[in-house]
């Protein structure tokens, strides 16, 4: 990075973006903090924190001594993220709007006002790193703090979005970030990290979905077809879900908890099994489509049958799982895992790594049962 740049920082009102802005100011850059408002359907709702977040962001900007502004992207968010979020749930899949938000709002819509401010670079409080290779292409790398690494959420970024991006926290541990914020008197130093989907907050998920998707009750069954309960609508459940099924007692008397194993859309049936290690919850091959590669081209696989092992994440925070990639076509691949994976979920993202480098990924569309004896008795 040049010795002095004009950098626009997305200030969310949290500790991470606060310290990102402070670090850049300490490095001698001209820093402008911008708060993005992405949701306004229920501003007065108990679970909506946007007003307090705006206050916190403005307070941090004042302490650091940087310019501050706020922009409203609620319309863009509803059109580009939330509408697709609802369509995916209606189709029985489980989307990840945080990935779409980064791609379609934070790094696609946000640069427009940033550029009007004459920005040379765009910074956020994400835990990730950017490096350039020999030909000048930007590479997305994992953060030093692997427990907070957010490259999974950023894997859809294109070169035009990643080139001006800056992640000041990439080489810091979360504990170090909080220590800096406390030492510098930033009011967000002990603010709780946001969790879950940004526009839902801490509210019950089904309660939120019921505002937008009507109930469609149906049978809750075992793989053999035994009815064990009633679901309220397939859209309200996800594979691997344990809580909120509302089935008391047990089918076979062993006391094992129930988990969602399958959604049968045509029959409007939710298939549930007992026990975390039930074979129907595991896949050893996963198909991924709508592929995006950060380098603008896929990994160099000889004759579409590379024996190289890559790391893959099928959900955020899971450790990299070793796998081999088999191409189906230019937009579809199958990942063959060394060990069966628990509940790969259609609509979520499969993200691939070569060591610390995030290569890219795509949307999970399905998987195959683990290659071992499957008992449904």
Quick overview:
With 377 residues, this protein is α/β, with parallel strands linked by helices. The protein is built from 9 helices and 17 strands. The chain has a 6-stranded antiparallel β-barrel.
Tell me about this structure.
The protein has 377 residues and is an alpha/beta fold. The protein has three domains: 136 residues, HUPs (Rossmann fold, 3-Layer(aba) Sandwich), CATH 3.40.50.620; 59 residues, SH3 type barrels, CATH 2.30.30.280; 91 residues, Elongation Factor Tu (Ef-tu), domain 3. The protein has nine helices and 17 strands. The strands form three sheets. Strands 12-15-14-13-16-17 form a six-stranded antiparallel beta barrel. It has a five-stranded parallel β-sheet with strand order 3-2-1-4-7. A hairpin with a 7-residue loop joins strand 13 and strand 14. Helix 1 packs parallel to helix 2, helix 1 crosses helix 8 and helix 3 runs antiparallel to helix 4. The longest helix has 17 residues. The radius of gyration is 22 Å and the shape is globular. The chain starts with 5 loop residues before the first strand and ends in an 8-residue tail after the last strand.
Secondary structure blueprint with pairings:
Elements: E1 6-10, H1 15-26, E2 30-37, H2 50-64, E3 67-72, H3 74-90, H4 97-106, H5 111-116, E4 121-123, E5 129-132, E6 138-141, H6 151-154, H7 159-162, E7 165-166, H8 174-183, H9 205-209, E8 218-221, E9 227-231, E10 258-264, E11 269-274, E12 282-293, E13 309-313, E14 321-329, E15 332-342, E16 349-354, E17 357-369
Parallel strand pairs: 1-2, 1-4, 2-3, 4-7, 8-11
Antiparallel strand pairs: 5-6, 6-17, 8-9, 10-11, 12-15, 12-17, 13-14, 13-16, 14-15, 16-17
Helix pairs in contact: 1-2, 1-8, 3-4
């Amino acid at each position: 990075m040049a010795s002095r740049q004009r950098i626009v920082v997305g200030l969310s009102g949290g500790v991470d973006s606060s310290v990102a802005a402070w670090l850049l100011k300490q490095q001698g850059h001209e820093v402008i903090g911008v708060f993005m408002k992405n949701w306004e359907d229920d501003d007065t709702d108990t679970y909506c924190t946007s007003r307090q977040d705006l206050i916190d962001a403005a307070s941090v900007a004042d302490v650091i001594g940087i310019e501050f502004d706020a922009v409203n992207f609620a319309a863009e968010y509803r059109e580009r993220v939330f509408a697709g979020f609802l369509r995916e749930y209606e189709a029985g899949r489980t989307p990840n709007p945080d990935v779409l938000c980064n791609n379609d709002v934070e790094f696609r819509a946000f640069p427009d006002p940033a550029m009007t401010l004459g920005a040379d670079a765009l910074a956020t409080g994400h835990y990730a790193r950017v490096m350039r290779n020999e030909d000048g292409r930007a590479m997305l790398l994992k953060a030093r703090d692997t427990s907070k690494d957010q490259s999974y959420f950023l894997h859809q970024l294109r070169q035009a979005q990643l080139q001006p991006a800056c992640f000041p926290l990439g080489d810091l541990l979360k504990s170090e970030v909080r220590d800096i914020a406390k030492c510098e008197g930033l009011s967000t130093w002990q603010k709780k990290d946001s969790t879950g989907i940004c526009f839902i907050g801490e509210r019950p998920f089904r309660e939120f979905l019921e505002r937008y998707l009507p109930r469609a009750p149906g049978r809750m069954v075992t793989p053999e077809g035994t009815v064990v309960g009633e679901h309220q609508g397939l859209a309200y459940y996800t594979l691997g879900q344990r809580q909120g099924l509302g089935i008391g007692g047990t089918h076979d008397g062993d006391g094992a908890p129930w988990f969602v194993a399958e959604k049968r859309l045509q029959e409007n049936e939710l298939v549930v099994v007992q026990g975390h290690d039930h074979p129907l919850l595991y896949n050893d091959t996963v198909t991924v489509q709508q592929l995006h590669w950060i380098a603008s081209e896929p990994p160099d696989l000889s004759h579409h049958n590379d024996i190289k092992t890559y790391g893959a994440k099928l959900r955020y925070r899971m450790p990299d799982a070793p796998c081999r990639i088999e191409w189906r076509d230019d937009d579809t691949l199958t990942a063959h895992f060394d060990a069966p994976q628990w509940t790969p979920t259609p609509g979520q993202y499969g993200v691939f790594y070569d060591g610390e480098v995030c290569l890219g990924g795509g949307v999970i569309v399905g998987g195959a049962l683990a290659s071992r004896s499957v008992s449904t008795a």
